[in-house]
Fold this sequence. Notes:
Elements: E1 2-6, H1 13-24, E2 27-29, H2 31-41, H3 44-54, H4 61-75, E3 81-84, H5 90-101, E4 109-114, H6 117-125, E5 127-129, E6 136-138, H7 165-179, H8 181-187, E7 192-197, H9 202-214
Parallel strand pairs: 1-3, 1-4, 2-3, 4-7
Antiparallel strand pairs: 5-6
Helix pairs in contact: 2-3, 2-4, 3-4, 4-5, 6-7
Amino acid sequence: MVVVLLGPPGVGKGTQAVRLVDDLSAAHVSTGDLLRAARREGTELGNLAQGFMDRGELVPDDLILDLVKEHLIGIGASRDVIFDGFPRTTDQATGLDVVLETSGRKVDTVVLFEAPDDVLVQRLSGRRSCPDCGAVHNAYFSPPAVEGVCDRCGGTLQHRADDEPDTVKRRLQVYLDQTAPLIAFYEDHPGTMTRIGADRDVEAIYAEFNSAVTGSSEGVS
């Protein structure tokens, strides 16, 4: 099973993805994580990506897709995969279809998380991310049990520079300009697409999310 998560920054798809990954023992694929790992390990693809980033350029789609393909080979064709924050554009989505087809796979389910802009700004400005396991907490909505410490793995939580309010508003505009067209792409795509209102209780969101992906009416494990 291959799942793609869509939604603007701060909508909570990362938080929901981490939980479903734990419940399904699925592979959580974030291209940001892949890039950081490849650069840290000094792989050929990581070094190529670093070159673009050092020059202040965007990493090209073909390089991102090569990273995804390499990672999927390592995962194996039988393991469930949840793509979080990728693809970001229709070109990347088309490329992902090609990559998946080479291993006999396809996108089975797309989940779109939605919430008002004012909620997204507050969520992002209060977000605290764990660089070790990818878990996300929020100072306003879901604070960790111990301030600054990840509930999931005990790592040190970070407040990213791109989560400042002014930067958040720019990121939302970029999403509207570049990523929102993916909604139309996947509405016409084979497979199922589910819209989930993410301005609600976290447990209610997860129950609907779990049901959309697994078909389970229980939702919460």
